[in-house]
């Protein structure tokens, strides 16, 4: 059995800026109005024979969307980004704790963004593909005690008609 949550209708949305370092067209700062579709497959169980209750999934995804909403998404593990005063070989999310802004270079372009305007992500890219993996990982962490779930999928849509779906088998 599979449950589906349509992000555009369930209001699982966020708007954010990002860039794909060194990409021909997506290498400059731009943004999208994203929405996130969720599919969870598993066996029905419990008093009501649910795979999982919709009311348990939507708040998790909504919280993730809210954390990204109206922010500049920065992939800290991208090989083309050089962060000021940080050692690339020992980079972690905590590396940025002491700074009030995020400073980096991509080729000859330099950026300084107030940290409160950013979301630092443990990713190589902030593409729809990478963001869909991020959503699935966060959902699978939140649902780790649900032994009846066989797979979790997230489709991060950059607009109507284009998105990337990632599925994790459990």
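-> sequence recovered:
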């Amino acid at each position: 059995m599979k449950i589906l949550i349509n992000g555009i209708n369930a209001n699982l949305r966020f708007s954010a800026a990002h860039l794909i370092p060194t990409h021909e067209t997506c290498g400059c700062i731009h943004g999208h109005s994203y929405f996130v579709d969720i599919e969870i497959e598993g066996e029905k169980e419990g008093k009501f024979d649910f795979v999982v209750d919709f009311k348990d999934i939507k708040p998790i995804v909504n919280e993730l969307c809210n954390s990204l909403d109206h922010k500049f998404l920065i992939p800290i593990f991208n090989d083309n980004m050089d962060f000021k005063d940080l050692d690339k070989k020992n980079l972690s999310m905590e590396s940025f704790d002491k700074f009030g802004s995020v400073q980096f270079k991509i080729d000859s372009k330099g950026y300084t963004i107030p940290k409160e305007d950013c979301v630092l992500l443990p990713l190589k890219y902030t593409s729809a593909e990478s963001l869909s993996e991020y959503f699935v990982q966060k959902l699978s962490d939140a649902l780790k005690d649900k032994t009846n779930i066989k797979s979790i999928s997230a489709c991060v849509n950059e607009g109507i008609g284009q998105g990337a779906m990632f599925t994790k088998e459990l």
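The helical segments are 54-68, 128-142.
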